[in-house]
Structures are given as structure tokens and as C-alpha cells.
Amino acid sequence: MIRLDHLTLSVRDHDISRDWYTRNLGLGVEFEVPARRAVAVRDDADFTLFLDESHPSGGTASCALYFQVDSVETKYEELSARGVSLIHPPSQQYWGYGAELADPDGYRVRLWDAASMREKGEARNTS
Questions:
Q1: d(CA 99, CA 67)
Q2: What fold is seen in the domain 1-54?
């Protein structure tokens, strides 16, 4: 068996990024390494994002993160009500049906749910 377990993201401020991921997506803090200015946050399936300030990327964000949620519409409403800036609301995208936002370092965070993807994400567009 092989499965992706951790992913390191270079961030400008690990505290700001930690707070953003825990507050907006409900990830939990797994551990912190203050000497490296880094923190690990984990989702419900034990996948860990290691937010590392010690190796700044020096450029634009270079990956997109896909988070499965119970309901993309409900999560969108919750985030919008809290004033979180979204790139687009739930809609048809080239990758399927979902919403998209950006974290404090510009990484694209895409939200989707299985039912909406099945019902609304079937016909992928090419934009």
C-alpha cells in the first residue's frame, strides 16, 4: 500500500496559516515546531499539511488543495457569512463542481462534496 500522508507548504507566517486552516476548514493542530517556525495541521482522515515558514517559496503558490466537505453549498454559506473571501462560489469548473478560495499565501483551496460532484460535476467544461 502507498498513500500520501503529509504535504509541506511554504508559508509567509505559520501562525496566520495555522489559524486560517483551523478556523476556516476545521483542521486540528497535530504538532508545532517553534524553532523551525512550522506547524502541522491534520484533517479527519489523518492527512497532514506541514506549514513551514523556514523555506519561503519566493513566488506564487504552486499547488491546489482539494478538500472534501459534507456539503459544498453549506460550507460556502458558512465561510461567506464569516467574511472569508472566496474566488468563486460553488459552480461548474474544469475539475468538477465546487467552490474555491485562497489561503493567506495564495494557495488555491478547492472545496467539493461527493453528492454535488456526482449530480452537478458530470459534464466537465474546458475553461
A1: 10
A2: 2,3-Dihydroxybiphenyl 1,2-Dioxygenase; domain 1 (3.10.180)
Name the residue among 5, 11, 14 with its Cα closest to residue 35.
14
Instruction: Determine the Cα angle at 3 with ends 115 and 20, to 5°.
Output: 65
| Those residues with Cβ within 8 angstroms of residue 123's Cβ, 6 or more apart along the chain or in another chain | 92
Question: Is pTM, for the whole model, over 0.85?
Answer: no
pLDDT mean across residues, the chain: 88
Q: How far is CA 109 from the centre of its chain?
A: 4
pLDDT digits (tens, 9 = 90+) for 41-57: 999 999 999 999 876 55
CATH, range 61-122: 3.10.180.10
Assign 51 to helix, strand or coil. Answer: strand
